[in-house]
TrEMBL record:
Family under the similarity heading: Belongs to the major facilitator superfamily. Sugar transporter (TC 2.A.1.1) family.
Organism of this sequence: Sclerotinia nivalis
Entry protein name: Major facilitator superfamily (MFS) profile domain-containing protein
Subcellular location: Membrane
UniProt keyword annotation of Manganese present: no
Positions in coiled-coil regions: none
Any GO molecular function: transmembrane transporter activity
Keyword Transmembrane helix: yes
Transmembrane residue ranges: 126-144, 203-222, 256-276, 283-301, 373-394, 406-427, 439-458, 465-482
PANTHER family to which the protein is assigned, alphabetical: MAJOR FACILITATOR SUPERFAMILY (MFS) PROFILE DOMAIN-CONTAINING PROTEIN, PROTON MYO-INOSITOL COTRANSPORTER
GO cellular component terms, A-Z: membrane
UniProt lineage: Eukaryota, Fungi, Dikarya, Ascomycota, Pezizomycotina
Mode of membrane association: Multi-pass membrane protein
Pfam families, sorted: Sugar_tr
Length: 547
């Protein structure tokens, strides 16, 4: 296949350039092609702004037919050659498919399906909705795991002999809470690439789901802080691999709103078992197994990622997977050939390298380095805004603000509810206004609301306004967080890397997020003991403003 032309670095797109092709035959059917190779090679080290546009644009029809036939012959797809040719023509010019004439003209059913893609976006096959549900449950597992320790923080430190005010005790409490993020940042996120390579997206989600399932059950039966720490380290292995895989598997099919739903359900579980004597904290930790069970079961009713099959050269299986995810075979054939064309171009750009080489390229290849920096920035910003301070320790914060044990759990439940409700607008706004716009709007509003929390903490605890205003502005803060800094970082990071580096790139992004979550989780208990709640929130203000 001829190589696409490299465009000047000031132009924003790489697009195949066919005007220089010279055919040696008397007509297009004699399509022996020569390429002037001196300018047709893509070099991402010098092309600072390049993006890959439609790789099929501008290819002469006869040449496209030959390429499709070669593709079908190579990948055992001869029986669908006519459908692949139709699909390639649609992919080449997605807006003018009704103008295709001759033997490749689309029938009424095919035209109607292509129209429905634009006019009726929710009219999708059940297999796609099952995939969305599975990915949503995966995100809910994440949120529930995050908040399982929130209510338990009011009980387990005293039972394990680490409930004192000493530096040792407060650091051990923080260490137990941060354990999943420590193992996620240093191990879980990085094993997602080899796991995806060998077991596929579904297999990786199943394996990580089992870690999330059995580790939380084990944590409910622990008798020492060391046992709890080990169980939560095991939980982190699953969390890291899952958090690096689910966004890639779902792409934008599964809104990140469901992570907020998991946080809300975690707070519900904390409240439900709050009055169970002695073992409440065990139920609060162990309840996170509930969403992990349907995740492990449901994932095998979902089709495997077609892109993963194609990376492995298993094109017939990729086509069968696309048939389940699309309403019409034409759409499946179109996407199969279009994805194949993208993969060929990406392979030319980055080559076929080992895991270590791909990781190194995240920092050495300009295109990948920009993606790495962008994902690092949005993930760091999500943690530095202070949201997980509340997700981890809101019950403790409300109790220190003067609330009783049940009222602290109720206030935390309210935080989870606000987080979930206000995440819904992201479904419509994330594509309408763009990822960057949402972040630029929500972060300043989060900054002033966290400042308001800090100022309200200075109100005397004897005043009835003290707890009420703190809770109010924490809810305002959550309302701004949920449609912006909540779903955007994971969605953005899953999109910004090319397929060849998506697993290792997403592993880097999620590891960044979880590392700083671990730092906050370890240090906050000590901060709350050394400083007042007001000082703690004042310390979050600069990082929030910087984000």
């Amino acid at each position: 296949m001829p190589e696409p032309k490299y465009i000047d670095q000031h132009v924003n797109f790489i697009q195949p350039e066919w005007s220089r092709l010279r055919t040696t035959g008397k007509n297009e059917s004699d399509y022996a092609v020569e390429v002037e190779a001196d300018q047709h090679h893509i070099n991402l080290n010098s092309n600072l702004d390049a993006k890959i546009q439609n790789p099929l644009s501008g290819i002469p029809a006869t040449l496209l037919y030959h390429q499709v036939e070669d593709f079908a012959t190579k990948h055992q797809l001869l029986e669908i050659i006519p459908l692949l040719i139709k699909g390639a023509l649609v992919a080449q010019d997605p807006t003018n498919y009704e103008d295709i004439k001759g033997e490749n003209a689309l029938n009424d059913e095919e035209i109607e399906c292509l129209r429905d893609e634009v006019l009726h976006k929710w009219k999708q096959p059940w297999a796609l909705y099952i995939t969305i549900i599975a990915c949503s449950i995966g995100a809910a597992v994440q949120g529930w795991d995050q908040t399982g320790s929130n209510g338990a923080n009011l009980s387990f430190p005293d039972l394990f002999g680490i409930g004192g005010k000493s530096t040792r005790d407060t650091m051990l409490v923080g260490l137990c809470n941060a354990a999943p993020y420590i193992s996620s940042a240093f191990i879980g996120c990085w094993i997602s690439d080899p796991l995806n390579n060998y077991f596929g997206r579904r297999g990786t989600i199943f394996i990580s789901g089992n870690f999330c399932l059995w580790s939380v059950i084990g944590s409910a039966f622990t008798t020492t802080w060391e046992e709890l720490f080990i169980c939560r380290l095991m939980l982190g292995l699953g969390m890291g691999a899952k958090a690096s895989t689910v966004p890639v598997y779902a792409a934008e099919n599964s809104p990140a709103v469901w992570n907020a739903f998991g946080i809300f359900l975690g707070f519900c579980a904390n409240l439900i078992v709050a009055n169970v004597p002695r073992i409440a904290w065990r139920l609060q930790l162990g309840s996170a197994f509930i969403p992990a069970v349907p995740l492990c079961i449901l994932i095998f009713y979902c089709p495997e990622s077609p892109r993963w099959y194609m990376k492995k050269g298993r094109y017939p299986e990729a086509y069968q997977s696309l048939l389940k995810l699309r309403n019409n075979p034409l759409q499946a054939a179109r996407d199969l050939y279009y994805i194949h064309s993208q993969l060929e171009l990406e392979a030319e750009i980055v080559g076929n390298h080992t895991y270590l080489t791909r990781f190194t390229q995240l920092f050495t290849v300009p295109r990948l380095r920009r993606a790495t920096l962008a994902s690092f920035t949005v993930m760091l910003a999500q943690q530095m805004c202070g949201i997980n301070v509340i997700a981890f320790y809101s019950s403790t914060v409300f109790q220190k603000a003067g609330a009783g044990r049940i009222n602290a759990l109720l206030a935390s439940w309210g935080f989870g509810l606000v987080n979930f409700i206000f995440a819904w607008p992201a479904i419509w706004t994330i594509d309408t206004y763009g990822r960057r716009t949402l972040l630029l709007f929500t972060f300043p509003n989060m900054a002033w609301s966290i400042l308001a929390v800090a100022l309200c903490s200075l109100i005397p605890e004897t005043s009835r306004a003290h707890l009420g205003l703190i809770a109010l502005f924490i809810y305002v803060y959550a309302a701004f967080y949920s449609p912006g800094a909540g779903p955007v970082p994971f969605t953005y990071s899953a999109e910004v890397f090319p397929l060849s580096h998506r697993e290792v790139g997403m592993g880097w992004a999620v590891a960044t997020n979880f590392f700083w979550a671990a730092v906050l989780g370890i240090t906050l208990p000590r901060m709350l003991d050394v400083f007042t709640v007001a000082v703690g929130y004042f310390l979050l203000l600069p990082s929030n403003t910087f984000s």
